[in-house]
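Something for you to look into today, if you have time. Could you write out one complete protein record for me, on any chain you like? Leave the record below and I will have a look.
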Amino acid sequence: MTAADHKDFALNLSLWINVLILITKIFAFVVSGSLSVLAALVDSALDILSQVILYWAEGKSKNSSVAIYPAGATRFEPVGVIITAAVMGMGSLSLIKESLSNLISNLTSGNVPELGGGGSSWLSLVSVIVIKILLSLYCKSVTDLLISTKADSVATIEAMYQDHFNDALSNGVAVVALVLAMNHPKLWFVDPCGAIVISLYIMWSWYETGTEEIEKIVGRAADQSLLDEIIYLGNSHHESLSVDICRCYHFGPKFLVEMEVILPADMLLRETHDIGMSLQYKLENVPEVERAFVHIDYSAREYDEHVMSRKVKSYQHQMSMTSPQGDDKTQSLNLII
């Protein structure tokens, strides 16, 4: 099986097992009435909803037309993860509210709730924990495989790994809270407190995951090691070429490269174009890079050409102080304005 096949298999396996786990937790909640089990149940229900969202994002990313999305549609995957994080956060917040209400109500009334189900309820949760640990390990191995093969996107399978890991922890807390509350009636408050702890952890973990994907969509800069690799490719591409400015930042799961290079002013347009295009193709063959743009100039610039409105006048003033007529650069800037 290829890395992509492993990814598809892991996603399909996760969906069907999540359905079976949801049924198991419904049984455990019905027989026990535990809020901690309810927290784990809501988490599983949201798991299925989130997986549907991730499937949608994965499908849009793979099957969208280039004519409709000229820059590619890989950013659908991080968008799907962000939506999932929001859904998980809202579901957990609602459960926290319910658990606090139950806790305050019983404390003020002096009521001690009774939990039923015996060993069947917590044993079913233990089986869920084992399954979730195995699934998280498998999804982690698939994630590592995709990263090692520098696959197009790992956001979806990383989210599934995070989800299975969260489920194993949340179900562990639910089992502990349920067993304590069942065997020691005076510790009934452990059950709603366990539900709150589970919900807070789910909110925190998905907040971290969602924040990371938001940074990728916004355009977080690449690590210095990748930037150095790309600059080296540019400087070694042609004997007459040197890199002036290089920007590399996230364009969804992968990176966009903007490279400004210098070639001799007397070189023919045909030559500069061919050199620039071949460099663009070379940069876009880097597995981490989705798109690359190469801008060719004949001289290094003392300003950022993407913020001309703020820097051109200052630059023109500096140039006019040294040359009344201005040099070629100043004349070029005048034409732009």
Remarks:
- Residues 85 and 206 are 5 Å apart (CA to CA).
- The longest strand covers residues 242-250.
- Strands lie at 242-250, 255-262, 289-297.
- Residues 329-337 have pLDDT under 50 and may be disordered.
